[in-house]
Amino acid sequence: MKLSRQFATFALAGAAVSFGTAATAEIKVGVSLSSTGPAAALGVPERNTIPLLPTEIAGHKVTYIVLDDGTDASQAGKNARKLVTEDNVDILFGSSATPPSLAMAEVADEFKVPQIAAAPVDLPADKEEWVFRAPQHVRQMAGALVDHMKANGVKRLGFIGYADAYGETWLKETKALAEAAGIALDDVERFARNDTSVTGQAVKLVAAKPDAILIAASGTPSVLPQDTLVNRGFKGQIYQTHGTATKEYIRVGGKLVEGTILPVGPVVVASQLPDAHPSKKMGEDYTRRYEEKYGPGSFSSFGAHIYDAYLLLAAAAPTALKTAKPGTPEFRSALRDALEQSKEVVGLHGVFNMSPTDHFGHDARSSTLIRVENGDWKVVSK
Description:
The chain is α/β, with parallel strands linked by helices. It folds into 2 domains: 2-136 and 286-365, Rossmann fold (3-Layer(aba) Sandwich); 138-264, Response regulator (Rossmann fold). Helices cover 41% and strands 19% of the residues. The protein has helices at residues 2-17, 40-49, 73-85, 98-111, 138-151, 165-180, 199-208, 223-231, 247-253, 280-294, 301-321, 329-340, and strands spanning 27-33, 56-57, 60-68, 91-94, 115-117, 131-133, 156-162, 184-191, 212-216, 237-240, 261-264, 345-347, 350-352, 368-373, 376-379. The strands form 4 sheets. It has a 6-stranded mixed β-sheet, sandwiched between helices. The termini are far apart. Residues 1-24 have low confidence and may be disordered.
């Protein structure tokens, strides 16, 4: 893993530097992603997106320094610290999963460096200042699911999710919304990202006989509880989160995941969106470029989070450059302020409008319900 991390850093940083001018003129982006480990299904397409990003913003060359954190929070923190203290980056992108993103957020706050997370991390108010997110807030995505549950007569909802910040955030947000909609959520189970069996949890949930079950996991590990539930006899509706929106999930799950409903950003089904949707054309273009480089069917929504992080940076940097030069604390601060003032920045996952009280910035244009049908995604009409 160490060698691959070093190679990725050398190859990507070196390629970008070769186009550069003076070091002080470059905008340095430090990236830590989960290219290996349990969240690799998220981190690999995010890493693969880096070569698709432009290498110039407002006349300044952009260097991307990319490290692998192995889906390990401790390593993500070390990566972020190295990127800030040794590489003097102006902004951090990452990580892919919630625990390593939280570790990076600690470094961002400590060193006053803006971060755009690729996971929907929740933070206390005193840790919010320097951290922005490319993915949608869990509350927004959970709301879309609960609306569907209510419209389809769900009265009792079961839950199985990661025993970490991602799973707990989904449980907290979904429970509050479900109860407000008259849906009971009392049957709750948890599992670790590295678990190879959830039989005990599945048996309890099936015995409880809920109308539907929500699985709060991400990437291919989302298949494990679904496989177990189906094979233990659960026949109700299964919902997943936007952390599961990867074709690898469908490939691994096969027929077992047919009919699953989940919320996603518009890029996942860009070709099925109305022409008036602001993200449609951009989403189709990104998907085409990604699959031209990595092969048909290789597209994943997670890479689009990194592209959205770039789009937010590209919109904010010109304003920050008016007051400070890259590589300085003043530029980092100005960049943070400009990110917070982002207005109508069109991204692949929707349109961003940041504010001092909202560092996610998404609205209704950023969520779409889809169902797995015949091995592909299909927009849910009802």
